[in-house]
Each structure stands twice: as C-alpha cells, then as structure tokens.
Amino acid sequence: MPNFFGIVASSLAKALASVLDTFNRANNASSLGTADNTVAPTGSWSVIRGSWGIASNAANSSTAASSYPLATLNFQSNTVTLGVDNIGPGAGTAFWVTDSGTWWATYVDATQSCSTCYNGSNTNYTTCNNPSNPINGTCNNPSNPINGTCYNTSNPINGTCYNPPNYGTNTCINIGYCYNGNAYTCVTGHNTSNPYTCVTGYNTSNPYTCVTGHNTSNPYTCASGSNTSNAYSCSCVTNTSVNLIKSIASTISTVATFTMTATVLGLKTLINGVTGVITVRGYSTTGYTTQIGTDQTATATGFTAKNTHGIILGPTTYSAAQTANIDNFQVN
After folding, report:
1. What's the structural domain count of the chain?
2. What is the CATH number of the domain that holds 57?
3. Of 17, 128, 135, 165, which residue is most buried, by most CB within 10 angstroms?
4. Segments in the chain below pLDDT 50
5. Cα of 326 vs its chain's centroid, Å
6. Using one digit for the tens of pLDDT, what is the confidence trace for 146-159?
7. Half-sphere exposure of 25 (CA within 13 A, CB side)
8. Is the Cα dihedral 307, 330, 89, 62 positive or negative?
C-alpha cells in the first residue's frame, strides 16, 4: 500500500514555509545560490527570466529591466507576505509564477519632476513683461515724433483744429473752446487745443507689434529664475510609486499604480491566493519601520494562485534612477 503520508511529507520538504535571504554570500555572476538558512535543493533559487547573480552582498541582474528578469523559490502557500528591503527604483517581488510568461509582480517605479529656471547671464534676465497685461505684445513706436505726447480724445474738436493766427472778425478769447471761421484739418492725432502728457511708452497713435516678450508699456522685475529667453530644468525631484503588473501568456500589462508620498526604500506585498486581494505597503526607511501612508489594495482577476514567488526588476519611467540590485528578500 502506498505511503501517502510519506509522499506528502516529501512534497512539503521541497517547499519553504518562509525565508529571509540577505544574499550575503560570495559574488557569483550567474547564480543566486541557496537562500540563507535553507538547504539545497529546497532553498535553491531558479532563474525564470534573464540572468541573476550575487554582487556585493545583493542579488544583481545584468539583464535590462525592460526584460523583467525574474528568479523564484517554491513555497508552501499562495497566501503570503513578500518583502524587499533597502531597495531602489526598479526592484520588486514576483508572485503566483507559473512560468516565464505567466506571473504577477509589484515593483518600485520612479519619475522625475523639475522646475524651470533661466540663464542668469542673459542680458534680459532681470526685466520681464507682464503676460496678464492686455496690451502685452503691443508696443508703441518710439520713432513717432509725437511719442510721449498724446491728445485728449474726449475733446469734441479732436481731429479738427483751427488756425490760431487767423482770428478774422470773430476773435475768440479761448482758442480751445471758441471757434473762428477758419477751420482746417489736423494731422491725425494732433489737436493743439488740448494736449496732455502721456504715460511713458503709451502712444495711441502709432501702435506696432513687439518682438516676443518685449512690452515697453508694462515692464516689471522678474521673480528669480523667470526669464523666458533661456529656459533649463532645475530643482529636480525623483518621485516613487509602486506598479502592480501581470504577465499572462507573455503579455505584460499594468494593473494598478500606487502613489507614494515619500521615497520607497522598502516594499511589502500581501497576496491572498483565495480572494485575489493584493495589498501594497511602501516604507520610507529600511527595516520596514516607517510606512508611507496607508495600505493600498487591488483585486486580481484571471489569476492562477501558484506557490512560487520571488524577485523581479521592472523598468522605471525615469531611467537614470534604475537599480539592478535587491538587497534583502523575505516571505512569511
């Protein structure tokens, strides 16, 4: 009669209940070896995608993150908590791994946001023009001989002047308001009866289009770094988030993106192989001591809850932040 209990016991012996692998072992470019405090073959890592090895006491992959290099161990449960600690953008955990084309994963993504600064050596650096000014983009021609002197358009005789030397028989006392009989046509904009001083730079009689950004009517001092002539990126900040992704028959897609308000140095992923609920926790310190915000969750659909879990690298949006290392991995 077959010994079913022996078969079950033998099967369980080939799977791990939990693990904490610090990868603190000799460098090896082509193998992760056996996880800490385990024995081969039970604790031997399997490389499913790309390449993995040990470099400076960390798991390291020389495969491009865009190929999602992945390595796994076999566990006794499909409902576990996975963690990676002391990590950078790109590092993550893989779970419910069927094969190289079917798996789920979470990993840290990074984006960069920058302010816009301007070159202080630009000669126009300290003078800007107010874009909220309704006449921005319209200047007045300084070569116009009457620039700086305007005439009162509310004067009813604007546009019609009278010849002061010719008083005739109807001499007026006030040339501005009395009329003699010798009217003549003014040059446009000239009404000698009621001149007044314009605000500097305003000449309603001869507008013209300004060179972009130059409006002599309303100059003001720029805020530091605001000069539209020579922009560059400055004060850049790297922001991290966590992507939940899946690969079904080698088609990889993003299921959810979890926003993080601080830099992620540790990541825990709680998976439930019965309900499909996936819970993500980001940590701003190593050792999982300071959680960023609260738990964030999503529910998987169309998944096969395997007991095979491990580590993965994913591509970051801001490629300069990409890591190739994972320092610590745990499942419990």
Report:
1. 1
2. 2.60.120.560
3. 128
4. 1-12, 121-228
5. 24
6. 333 433 444 333 33
7. 17
8. negative
